[in-house]
């Protein structure tokens, strides 16, 4: 996986943007996940409920990726630095975005 953008930007920029995106996207995505799995919230068609859940998982995964980039930037000069995100969170984000778009198409038809 090409992670050159994580190395090419300045350390302070990675900390600021990674931390800000992580918190903001997490605050948007987490309520969507809870709304998608909460038993008393009824979204009549199943595809709408799945779309809300997949969109929340996508936003939470992107939040995790951004937070991991920020933590890697903070700890890059320490003795045991944290590694930047691997390929798995990107795959989870892509699959959940595809499921959300597919469910949106089903809901609109």
From TrEMBL:
Organism of this sequence: Umezawaea tangerina
Keyword Transmembrane helix in record: yes
Domain of life per record: Bacteria
The protein's name in its UniProt record: Uncharacterized protein
Record keywords: Membrane, Transmembrane, Transmembrane helix
Transmembrane parts of this sequence: 15-38, 50-70, 90-108
């Amino acid at each position: 996986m090409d992670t050159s953008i994580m190395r090419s930007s300045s350390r302070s920029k990675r900390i600021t943007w990674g931390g800000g995106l992580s918190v903001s996207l997490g605050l948007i995505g987490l309520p969507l996940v809870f709304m998608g799995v909460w038993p008393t919230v009824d979204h009549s068609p199943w595809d709408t409920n799945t779309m809300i859940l997949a969109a929340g998982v996508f936003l939470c995964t992107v939040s995790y990726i951004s937070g991991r980039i920020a933590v890697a930037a903070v700890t890059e000069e320490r003795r045991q630095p944290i590694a930047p995100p691997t390929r798995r969170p990107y795959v989870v984000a892509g699959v959940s975005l595809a499921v959300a778009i597919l469910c949106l198409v089903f809901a609109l038809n």
